[in-house]
Structure formats: structure tokens, C-alpha cells
């Protein structure tokens, strides 16, 4: 399903194949030879999403840009089932395995592997040819790759990256943080009420 969002329509190369149950919404460019499988969602929430050539987006993956964090995915990239990419830049020839998460402002270098269930956190920079092992967490610039049992170290690095401030423009110490966050985010998402289905 293709949708116009905020006046922008997806641009899909004629050689690309998008499954009928996939959702492509807004300012999305999909390059030659791409395959977008069933249940995948590629949505430009005010900022563009660009997929290079020969990108495979597998079942139920989510790729989301925002007005402040576009998404760029290079060529010859595999995005695994249930993977999630938000506002990030992915280089060429990258393998993003099942269930991975890549957050806003992150950059994943060419030929890197983010293995099953791994996380590349907010504003994290992975150089070319990096590997994030199964279930591990990459955090920081330059990235430190830590096992999930090292929560205190991950949190010490992650806290300085300021997720609520960077993504939502809110101070973490705001007394009613979740009230403000959810109301602001809901208002932005409500813009989908004016979307127009194209197919």
C-alpha cells in the first residue's frame, strides 16, 4: 500500500518489488532491484527515507524517518525480519539481522554487521566493517560494543546521548516527561489523518 503523506508521494523504481501488504508512506525513494516484503513499513514522518539499489526489507521490518532525522540506506543492504531503523544512516553492503534496532542519529558504516537482536543506540557511530554480536549494544561516538549484562556501563554512555532531548526536544528531568512526550508525539502522528491512499 502506498500513501501520500504531508503532500509527498513515494517514488519506487520500476524494477523494485513491494509486497501488497507492505506500507510505503510519504517522501520515500526506493531504488532499483529493491525487495520490500509483506508487512514491512517504510514511513517518512516529515523527513525523507532513501533506499539505494538492491536493498531487501524483510517481513515486518520498520523504517521510520522524522522531520529532524532522515533515513538513508545504501545499496546491497539486507534489513531482517522485525528490524527497526529510526532516523539513521546505513552504509553500503550492511547486514542488519532479525530483530535489530538502530536509533536516531546513528551511522552504520559500510560492510558492517548488526547481528540478531543487537542494538545500535542513539547517535552512535559504527565505523566500516564493524560487527555488533548477537544481542549486544553499540553505544557512543566512537561506538563501544558491550554485552547486555553490562547495563550500568551502557546506561552511563546512553544517558549522555540524551534520548528525550535529542528525539523529542524534552528535558529528561521534566516532571511530567511522559505526558509531554506522548501528547507532542501523538499530535505529530495525527498528521496521518490527512494521508491519501495511492493504490
UniProtKB/TrEMBL annotation:
SUPFAM superfamilies found in the cross-reference section: Trimeric LpxA-like enzymes
Pfam families: Hexapep
InterPro entries: Hexapep, Transf_Hexapept/Carb_Anhydrase, Trimer_LpxA-like_sf
Top-level taxonomic group: Bacteria
PANTHER family documented for this protein: DYNACTIN SUBUNIT P25 (PTHR13061), GAMMA CARBONIC ANHYDRASE-LIKE 1, MITOCHONDRIAL-RELATED (PTHR13061:SF29)
Protein name per its UniProtKB record: Transferase
Organism this protein belongs to: Microbacterium dextranolyticum
Amino acid at each position: 500500500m502506498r500513501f501520500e503523506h504531508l503532500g509527498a508521494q513515494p517514488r519506487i523504481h520500476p524494477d523494485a518489488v513491494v509486497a501488497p501488504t507492505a506500507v510505503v508512506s510519504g517522501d520515500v525513494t526506493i531504488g532499483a532491484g529493491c525487495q520490500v516484503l509483506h508487512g514491512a513499513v517504510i514511513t517518512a514522518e516529515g523527513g525523507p527515507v532513501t533506499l539505494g539499489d538492491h536493498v531487501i526489507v524483510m517481513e515486518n521490518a520498520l523504517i521510520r524517518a522524522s522531520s529532524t532525522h532522515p533515513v538513508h540506506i545504501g545499496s546491497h543492504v539486507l534489513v531482517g525480519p522485525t528490524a527497526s531503523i529510526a532516523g539513521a544512516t546505513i552504509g553500503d553492503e550492511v547486514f542488519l539481522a532479525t530483530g535489530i534496532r538502530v536509533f536516531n542519529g546513528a551511522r552504520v558504516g559500510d560492510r558492517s554487521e548488526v547481528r540478531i537482536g543487537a542494538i545500535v543506540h542513539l547517535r552512535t557511530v559504527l565505523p566500516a566493517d564493524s560487527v555488533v554480536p548477537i544481542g549486544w549494544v553499540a553505544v557512543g561516538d566512537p561506538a563501544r560494543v558491550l554485552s547486555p549484562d553490562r547495563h550500568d556501563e551502557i546506561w552511563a554512555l546512553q544517558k549522555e546521548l540524551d534520548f528525550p532531548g535529542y528525539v523529542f526536544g524534552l528535558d529528561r528531568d521534566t516532571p511530567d516527561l511522559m505526558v509531554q512526550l506522548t501528547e507532542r508525539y501523538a499530535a505529530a502522528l495525527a498528521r496521518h489523518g490527512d494521508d491519501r491512499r495511492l493504490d
